[in-house]
Amino acid sequence: MFLSDLDFSSPVPIYRQVIYLIKLEILSGRLRDGDQLPTIRELAKILKLNPNTVAKAYYTLENERFIESKRGSGNWVNYKKAKLDSLRRGMVEDEFRSFLETALSIGATIEDIKNLLKRYSDNDRKNR
Amino acid sequence: MTEKIVEVENLKLNIGRKKILDNTSLELQKGESVVIAGRNGSGKTTFLKCLANVIFPDQGSIKFSEEVPPEKIGYISDQLSLFENYTVKKGIDFHASVFHIEDFDYTLIKELKLDLNQKIKNLSAGERTLFHLSLILAQEPEILLIDEIIHVIDPYLREKFLEAVIDLMDRCQATVVMVNHTFSEIEKIPERVLVMEKGQFILDEKSETLGEKLKKVVSEAEISDEVPRIFQRELSYFREYFVYPFNEELRKKFPYDYKNTRLNEIIKAFVGGQYVKKGNQ
């Protein structure tokens, strides 16, 4: 768990990147509702981060109601299913927007992208 | 709540005629972790030694808060010699008796697979560093000063070293000051980045905002003088400018390609380039 893809040079603060990482783990099903998260100290050691950074990420995730921290016993994944769907939509849209920016910047048209999408969905149907 | 743990005011130190520290001032908060970068001879190690009470400045003052007695200041460097003729075991026992440590934590020593009957002078540079770290950690320091040692340790021990430091930060809310030449491994640990030049701190930024405020422009032609920069260098085919402080207004006014930059790159440019004094900005 937790592939280290944190990028110091990114304008996105590290604690935001940690939040993103954990949300990815949740969406992909590697972290399930009710699972225990590593302690702040453990995760800081795994990712070679300042413990304060991890604490800030956990605190934010708790406020956003993805995890629950129980005093003395650690942090647990805890979310409502509806919340996951809106998170997924948001993240897919973010990824799509950045893909679109790259594609348009190297000269693709919206038409190209539509064709691409059609080709992939046809393939997908064939494979099922 | 922040709580000041040390206040350094106007340190001056000359060696011969050379100014090593020149009115150097700094405040550190409890639990803060800081990295000090800068080229060789810029005064980093001297500054750290002053903090560690190893050398005394000619002028200026260093005030620690009351909760930091001298034995709670840990200083690690690769130049230290420690009970060279002792065995590892004897070194640990001696250290524990001097500092009244009852149950010495052998975890690191075990992970290193150190032979307790080996003489300390026969340890490798990396083993010696980790041995030294385990002595210091046993004192549960309030302040840990780490002087350019990460590069002498192999990657495995380096990981162990960093884990031990992170552990201390979380367990004891220790304040950590690192002086470094290599950054890729530690760049996510410090919350604050300082750059030293000629005995003064020329950059003091929170890591979180450093990425937004410091950008790199690579260009064949010279860029406008009005773009503020902290340093620049000329390479054979192009010039590099490290723009600081950067803001989005600047991008509108001078539409260069402002790139994000890593700590390592900043330091490389700094060491090989030319520091642009504040007066020119």
Spatial separation of the terminal alpha carbons of chain A: 29 Å
CATH topology of the largest domain in chain B: Rossmann fold
Mean pLDDT across all residues of chain B, rounded? 86
Low-pLDDT residue spans of chain B: none
Query: Major β-sheet of chain B, in short?
Result: 6 strands, mixed
Count of separate structural domains of chain A: 2
Query: What's the gyration radius of chain A in Å?
Result: 18 Å
Sheet with most strands: strand arrangement of chain B: 5-6-7-3-8-9
Helix/strand order of chain B, N-terminal first: EEEHEEHHHEHEEEHEEEHHE
The SSE string of chain A, one letter per element, is: HHHEEHH
Mean pLDDT of chain A: 87
Q: How many H/I helices of chain A?
A: 5
Just give the CATH class of the largest domain in chain A.
Mainly Alpha
Q: What kind of sheet is the major sheet of chain A? A: 2 strands, antiparallel
Q: What is the level-2 CATH architecture name of the largest domain in chain A? A: Orthogonal Bundle
Going by CATH, the homologous superfamily of the largest domain in chain B would be P-loop containing nucleotide triphosphate hydrolases
Strand order of the largest sheet of chain A: 1-2
